[in-house]
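Service request form, structural biology core

Requester: graduate student, group of Dr. S.
Request type: structure prediction, single chain
Budget code: on file
Notes: please return the result as structure tokens.

Sequence provided:
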Amino acid sequence: MLTVARVAPEEPDRAEKHDGAEGHDGAEPRGLSTLPPAAEHGGRLERRLRSTDGELEVCLFGFPSEAAVEAYDAELRRLPDAAPDDDSRPRLLRLPLVFERGPERIRLWRCVGEWPVYLILDNDETLDEVDLLMVAEVLTDLDRHLDAGLRFAHGALGVADPLREPELVFYADDEWFLRFTEGCADPYGVGVMFRRHEPVRIEDLDEGEIVEWPEAP
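Core staff response, request fulfilled:
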């Protein structure tokens, strides 16, 4: 389970970027303080990252089963939304990740929310190598990144097809892949590769290896 919280900024000396279950002083991450305890569902905090401005907090929880993930996610869904002027409660983005083995040496974590999101790694890579803070930055500003991908694709291809139905794929580096699966003549869709927050190239999906993502249950 990947939980992204936008929290009010705090004093600079506490807005540090840190991996792990606790900060250097043993304090619980601020964005977690208003969340139900994951331990009640067998979960534990495996990674915690804070942006340099202190406003974005990313927490990766591990759970013993998919049922435990679903139970904890149900608790998060029941939390009241924060009011626009309420800085005491984090604004949450939930990504209940489901691990699946892909073809050959590929391992993937799937999350299907408004749009499908995938974390794809080689067998010798781990989630520790994924820049979860970058993933969170993209997903919390998704409209801007989708618009940048659309404009880049239209300019590079010289067409104005109404590209839609995006999928997002993240890897263990600073590049990630935006694929529009509908709205163009190519049956594989249109793929735009980003380097962090900027589109850098169009991927030729006809020549590359196309991984057919499993359908969500």
